[in-house]
Amino acid sequence: MTVIPELHPVLDQVTRRVIARSATTRSAYLQRIRAARPPAMAGPGRESLGCANLAHGAAACGPDKLTLTATPARNLAIVTAYNDMLSAHQPFEGYPELIRAAAREAGGVAQVAGGVPAMCDGITQGRAGMELSLFSRDVIAMSTAVALSHDMFDAAVLLGVCDKIVPGLVMGALSFGHLPVLLAPAGPMPSGLPNKEKARIRQAYAAGEVGRDELLEAESRSYHGPGTCTFFGTANSNQLLMEIMGLHLPGSSFVNPGTPLRAALTAETARRALAAADDPDRAMGEIIDERAVLNGIVALLATGGSTNHTMHLVAMAGAAGVRITWDDFSDLSAVVPLLARIYPNGQADVNHFQAAGGVSLLVRELLQAGLLHDEVRTVDGPGLHRYTREPFLDGPELVWREGPTESLDKSVLRGVGDPFSPDGGLRVLHGNLGRSVVKTSAVEPDHRFVEAPAVVFDHQDELLDAYRAGELDARDFVAVVRYQGPRANGMPELHKLTPALGVLQDRGQRVAVVTDGRMSGASGKVPAALHVTPEAARGGPLEKVRDGDPIRLDTLNGTLSLLVDADEFDAREPARRTIPSGPTFGTGRELFGVFRAAVGPADEGAVIAGPGS
């Protein structure tokens, strides 16, 4: 039997304050979802439907039609983000038939209740479509709610992997938190071009040393088949979080697509969802509580995961009535050790992480250090210690066995007693420019403090033009890229800037970025103060910064400071009176005007509306 030590005092302190902060909103949420739960032994929820309603819902169900209309069998909703443009989502094409078959074997029915959009930040990077990316999360949440709104279902399986898709699916499904809900991942593609070589060629292209043909060949060798991209960006951070927050089956996150084990886990996910229909403790809204959310934060910090989750976790938690803040991330980061080195925080990819011990070893180490809550509900049953196990096929049977007790590759994954760093590498910076987050786990120690004159840009293309013109050569600077927040233009990722700035840093220049936008879930070696709030478009201090203003980015002391006389700065006129976000039309931008007007600040999750807003 696993012996779980007492909680680390900082985790205990943060947990107590999150529970106290969330008392009113969490209580109201639980009251809502418990009221929506059918009475005990009432049978399937669809039995309350009128005959015409039920006939519509069963009309095209073929062999399952009689089961739906004449028996008390449970019905499973499938909400899918399938498309065959995204490598991570292409494997979902065959999932519905697999899930339907597993449901029939279990005496139930499964229907695709709806689809949600799934866009790729890797494709839209630096393009106009990126301005729709963050807002797509709330569209996905709404689409998920529409799919589940038919009162036909007793449980749900969500099919999604990538950046905004998983948070959106979770936010939408939490509106139906009385239902048991499991997520079924697709798994990462096999390893391709080593990450170190990929990064080298990207920088060589930015420096003009190789051409587009060489760059495209390298990128194609990196992203080469079905499955999630293998670096540790937001997509794979999503998978880690869903497992450790108890919404995946144990050990299921990083099993490659197209394998017998992947298919067996998908079928078992369907069976578990149906079996949970009569268990109130397996309802999604009961599983995602304060402790589960904090477990997610700890896991993110321990692996150096995506900075995007300083917004997405806040938004997902808010949808369950749980209120977390950036201070919770910061306080936990100070005591959670960095246990994994996965690109961009190292050279390994998620397949190497999985082979070294993966989630099961990570959970074991953090539980033994008192840095995770064991007393949580999960889709596998009570207790997070269940997630120290790994799935295997024993002939045709799916079984779980205890995972490794030590890392099989300490260059990728380590124990708490021998971490890569004593802290989680995420800092919240405070100062007269506002609040921001910075990911230091991929930044070398001698680059974690930068003091230099500001070079101010209102769009990422302006910075790239200046780089190509040689205007940023042979000098230290802090690039201020403003009017990139959610209110201005939907908060696009600015990852396209990374290779150029990396070239300048490698030449010996001290460079940093300060922006109210996002950089990427794969923020890299250039120090970047991200998600600055209040954003420039809300009247934040960034709109008064001028070229040449000295800025100090100090991750050691957690400060972001403009070194200008306060009276002089207060007397300045803003750079612009209106939001200079560029076009508000084209590529669908005109459809999202109401989102830009209604979106909340980054530190509150950048949500549009709902319980977490």
Automatic annotation (TrEMBL):
Cofactor, free-text remark: Binds 1 [4Fe-4S] cluster.
Gene Ontology biological-process annotations: branched-chain amino acid biosynthetic process; D-gluconate metabolic process; Entner-Doudoroff pathway through 6-phosphogluconate
A GO term from the CC aspect: cytosol
Example of a GO MF term: metal ion binding
Listed pathway(s): Carbohydrate metabolism; Entner-Doudoroff pathway
Entry cofactors: [4Fe-4S] cluster
Residues annotated as domain Dihydroxy-acid/6-phosphogluconate dehydratase C-terminal: 412-606
UniProt binding sites for [4Fe-4S] cluster: 162, 229
Origin superkingdom: Bacteria
UniProt entry keywords in alphabetical sequence: 2Fe-2S, 4Fe-4S, Amino-acid biosynthesis, Branched-chain amino acid biosynthesis, Carbohydrate metabolism, Gluconate utilization, Iron, Iron-sulfur, Lyase, Metal-binding
Domain Dihydroxy-acid/6-phosphogluconate dehydratase N-terminal: 76-384
Pfam family, one: ILVD_EDD_N
EC number: 4.2.1.12
Catalytic activity: 6-phospho-D-gluconate = 2-dehydro-3-deoxy-6-phospho-D-gluconate + H2O
Protein family per UniProt: Belongs to the IlvD/Edd family.
HAMAP family xrefs: Edd
Function: Catalyzes the dehydration of 6-phospho-D-gluconate to 2-dehydro-3-deoxy-6-phospho-D-gluconate.
Protein name stated in the entry: Phosphogluconate dehydratase
Lineage start: Bacteria, Bacillati, Actinomycetota, Actinomycetes, Pseudonocardiales
